[in-house]
Amino acid sequence: MQKESGTINVPQLGSRKLTACYTVLLSAASAVSAGVYYLAAGKLAELGLGAAAYGLALLLPILIGAGTALITVGPANRQFRHLRLAFQKIIDGDLSARLPETETGAFRVAYSDFNRMAEELEKVRAMREEYVNTFTHEFKTPLTAIRGFAELLQEPGFTEEEQKKYLQIIASESSQLAELANDAMLLTKLETQNLPVVRENFWLDEQISQCLTMLERSIQEKGQNLTAEIEPVEVCGSRELLSHVWTNLVGNAIKYTPNGGKIAVSLTHTDKNAVFTVTDSGIGMTEEVKSHIFDRYYQADPSHTRKGIGLGLPIVHKILDVCGGQIEVESRPNQGSTFRVILPLGTNAD
């Protein structure tokens, strides 16, 4: 516990030290009151006041008790009232509420924790607003394209080849809309735990190989060099959910690796875990970006020049939480990234 500037080291609210200090203080006040009462009663009795002497003697202990309460409970009650009022501001939507962290005695740590909570809530609200704006933008763009080309096709004079081209664009934009909606729904269900998880034994190497096959066209379009070392590994888990993990991680490697770049995928296993690794020679990430990539509303590219709204990695993180796995990230700017998934093998008998 650190000292406040210019003040003594004050025991903090909720600590055993503070409880002990109050116990000692009240015990001392009680002992002093008893002694004062005994002396006062004796002196007043000498004046021949009889039973009234004992009643008058009680006034001094009462005054001592009241003074002790005012000195100890009074400031604490005011500080607690300030804390309650600050919470009320948060409840009313004012996330700018802050409390002073100096000269607050036993409430210093509580005030500090409140301020950190308010700051985190402000960050979450800002990221949520950014997410809503991004989602709206990404959703509106394909809708506008679909509407535009649909109206265009109603006009006469287009050749069959032109019509086919416009219909392909409409199909592509519709597919993007469906992907955005599905990702948003999946993340919501994962976060609210409103998603049934069916666990089964299956060969993970076959699933990852199928994922690479589906993404092969994207790799060829960018002229990238993909190497894969896949060992046979059987796991017990959610086949459907885990497929999103490999598709997102390899898809991101393709997206953020320039044309002609390298991507390496591997699957190995230990006695207890399957270990999936994807390494790319892409743009990499700063420490700041890396610390936020699994946040729900985080956008590393606020200009939205890259396709997507940043739901992929939060989905990956949530799925691995559900499946008992974990993910590790290594990355440096302009030196590529490595994502490593560690997934327990498990069996149906577990």
Please tell me what the overall shape is.
elongated
Radius of gyration: 33 Å
The level of helicity is 55-70%
**Structural class label:** alpha+beta
- Along the chain, the helix and strand elements come as HHHHHEHHEEHEEHHEE
Query: How would you sum up the major sheet?
Result: 5 strands, mixed
Uncertain regions spanning at least 5 consecutive residues = 1-7
Distance between the termini: 45 Å
What's the number of helices?
A: 10
Question: Class of the largest domain, according to the CATH hierarchy?
Answer: Alpha Beta
Mean pLDDT: 79
What is the CATH T-level topology of the largest domain?
Heat Shock Protein 90
CATH superfamily of the largest domain: Histidine kinase-like ATPase, C-terminal domain
What does this structure look like?
The protein is of the alpha+beta class and 350 residues long. Helices cover 57% and strands 13% of the residues. It is built from ten helices and seven strands. The chain has helices spanning 16-46, 51-57, 59-91, 108-153, 160-191, 204-214, 216-221, 239-255, 287-290, 312-323, and strands at residues 200-203, 225-230, 234-237, 262-269, 273-280, 326-331, 337-344. A five-stranded mixed beta sheet has the order 2-4-5-7-6, with helices on one face. The chain has a two-stranded antiparallel sheet with strand order 1-3. The relative contact order is 0.08.
